[in-house]
Amino acid sequence: MTRPNNSTLKNVAFYAACFTFSIALFVALAEAGHVYPFGDNSFLTNDLKYQYIDFFAWFRRVLLGEANLRYSFSQGLGMNTWGLYSYYLASPFNLLCALFPADKLTLFVFAITALKLGCIHISSAWYVQKRFDLSKPAAFLLSLSFTFCSWTISNLRNPLWIDCLILLPICAYGCYELIRKQRMIRLVIATALNVMFCWYTAYISILFLCIFVLVEFVDYVAEEGFSWKLMLDRALRFAGAIALGLLLSAWTFLPTILAMSKGGPVLALGPLLKTSLKSLIRGFLPCMWVSNESTPQFYCGIVMMLLAVSLLVNRTVSIKTRIATLVVTIILVASSVLSPLEYIWCGMRVPNGFYSRTAFLLSFFALWAAGHALQALKNQPKLRQAYRPVVIMPLLALTAIALFANAHVMWNQLYTGYSEKANSAYVATATDTITTIQDQTSASFYRIDRTTTRVDSAALNEGLALGYNQLSSYSSANNPQAIALLNSLGYSSVGEFSTRYAEPILAVDALLGVKYAIAEHAPSGYAAMTEIADTASAVYENPYALSVGVMASNDIQNCTLKGENPFEKQNDLYSKILGREVMLYTKIEAKNTEDDENLRQWNATVPSGSIGYLYINKDATAGSYWPVTLTIDQRTIGNEAWRFDNNIRQIADASDSPSQHTASIGVAEGYTDMPQDNDPVFYALNLDVFEQIINELKMSEFVPTVFEDGRIEGEYTAKDDGNLLLSVPYDEGWNVTVNGTATELTPAADKGLSSLNMQKGANRIVMTYKTPGALAGLAVSLATAAALVAAGLYARHKKSRR
User: Fold this and answer.
1) What is the DSSP letter of 616?
2) SS3 of 9, please?
3) I need a labelling partner for 96 at 20 to 30 A (CA). Which of 479, 516, 577, 590 fits?
4) 802 Cα distance to chain centroid
5) 3-state SS class at 246
């Protein structure tokens, strides 16, 4: 047995020190900021609170065999979950969530964040040592600066993005090897892993590598000389390495592309300049980041930044390398300032939140430039003394202190206003309520949704976390057609990428099978469930809720819903289902009683036997982020007509006589004016017509015996040949058999629903979901891996024969 040599042991000890120091610094930050588990400030903030914690809970259920990795009905009527997995959950660190209890997932997130920071420190220290042959103290200093740069600290709330910083140094060294040694395999494998762990940050990284490899090429030819043949050879090798990396990851990349390519809302580009000169300057300074301003996260340690700048004026470094460094620096800074560049970096889409997503690239490039500067310094006899540990160690201490202070200031902005105690209490109550509801019914199909949320009226993904079917969905990886349908019917803003069940809408709830609503206000048409009143949440049952399928006319197939507002679209939807025109809603002519710049008011009379509703039709110039204050009689909604709070709102219960009501809109809190064309429309749901329609549809319900993620089974007896409408979004991944014969699923209602052709008599329906592209992608990955192994063996054999 060969003993490890002294050099190997020193390297192991060094990387262990990097790993341990980063975790210790992270823990010290948590203790100083009183962040859980060292205080009551919750580590959950922004989307980590609104989305990821529920995604982790779902993934834990998948790992424990309680949920399906391929498909879920727990979001927006139903969705292919491969995009959810590959974007948010594919990191191998997430496998650790199975080791944590369901009520300790905040601790899990904290733990994997610490581990990721330690791994970033190791990979970046390894990179600068290998690339620039630096001493261990120098490598420690630079890698610590990269690990705790402002971008990393501010984006710990995005744990899915952090793995990229572990792999980026390895990819960069792969570029160095490719240029100087013509070796491709490291870049191939690192690219594949990058895509496997998070395709979104992998896209950003690959785009960056296309620029970075040019810098390495310029640096190389400055020493060895330029030739077009050399350039073509390296360009082809680089393109081949990236292509092979994508092919190697095809088992997850191909189904991801198919899952995410259905489209969705595309936001318009904003102003050309994303920030001000003042905020841009603040982005380069320690302790100056402001979370509610457009401050780019450029700061990455004073020493490393000064070293990086010094490369530009170091005359011992080739002028070509210095010019290339300056050009790339300008491009990376501009990418966080100019909207068109940000649009390109973010996948040809306008990012929704989290400004300056690509700032980590500038921090890494500063790591490269600083390493290059130290390498040049080491090679200058007059300046070698500055490279000695006795000089670097005080600089390291200064760097650690500055990074800690900067991170502490940022944490004091991020982890406030939401306590871990409040989070634990909310999760416990939600779990208790859902469990109680599920224990009360033995039905195979029903949906539950709630208007109460964890905090700040954010759309939630509790259905994924707790295992129930809901309409709400706050995710970048849902079924866009289903979300578009829900929003067009009045649940959230038209054009939003997600939806929130902010208030029950009786007619649509019934059609989509929402049987239970957890709501702050008693919804008309629902009945209070007094038997579960002790759960601390008010639960209401919808007696009109239909099952997953009803017989419909052929008008519903491949149809587009028409109407200028959600009420008219619901009328059109029910008319197409029934094959005749129905007036489920009738318009109420409201009288405008006040109209000025700060307040608009209407009086509306709701007919007897009807439920009164209103909906604010947003002006096209209002956008998603210009709300108003809505007051209905004595009820006030602080932010209405924006994002997830642009909903049909109830204004009156059904009564035996007409009733008058007042509605007004005003300036929302934090705004100085309001959009002048956001007029509400008033409609009445005629209960007699509604009940007659529901009774008719209940005569032809399809009640499945099995309704679970990725599978629907049941017997359906059709009175005549016809069309069975399913409240399941159309998706090419469904494989359907009727009486053992393969049957095509047909799109319905803008592809937000689907339908099946039925023959008269008994029909045995079996629907199973298979992820589109999964088998083809796996075949490509295996073939690529086999080809790489064969090529490696052939090269080794050829070398041994020389």
Assistant:
1) E
2) helix
3) 479
4) 53
5) helix
Neighbouring CB atoms inside 10 A of 398's CB total: 14
What's the Cα-to-Cα distance from 52 to each of 57, 84, 88, 341, rounded to whole Å?
9, 10, 7, 27
Element at 568 (helix H, strand E) = helix 566-578
In the three-class reduction of DSSP (H, G, I as helix; E, B as strand; rest coil), residue 685 is classed as strand
Residue 680 has phi, psi (to 5 degrees) of: -75, 150
Q: What share of the chain is helix, strand, coil (3-state, %, to 5)?
A: 50, 15, 35
Cα–Cα dist 309/58, whole Å: 46
With 0-12 / 13-18 / 19 or more C-beta atoms within 10 angstroms meaning exposed / middle / buried, residue 240 is: middle
| Strands laid side by side in the 514-518 sheet | 447-450, 514-518, 539-541, 527-528
**β-bridge mates for residue 594, sequence order:** 601
Burial of 457 (0-12, 13-18, 19+ CB in 10 A): middle
Q: Which candidate, 776, 799, 798, 795, places its Cα nearest to that of 247?
A: 776
Question: What pTM was estimated for this model as a whole?
Answer: 0.94
b vs e for 107-120, b when ≥16 Cβ sit within 10 Å of the residue's Cβ? ebbbbbbbbbbbbb
* H or E stretch at 19: helix 6-32
Walk along the chain (802 residues) in steps of 10 and give the mean pLDDT of each run. 72 95 97 94 88 95 95 94 94 96 94 97 97 92 97 94 97 97 95 96 96 96 91 96 97 90 64 87 94 89 95 93 96 93 86 87 97 85 62 87 96 89 88 90 93 74 94 90 95 89 95 94 89 71 96 93 95 96 95 90 94 87 77 92 90 91 92 85 96 96 96 94 95 95 94 94 96 95 94 80 68
User: If residue 746 lies in a helix (H) or strand (E), which one and from where to where?
Assistant: strand 746-748
List strands edge to edge, sheet with 761-769. Answer: 706-708, 711-718, 761-769, 734-738, 741-743
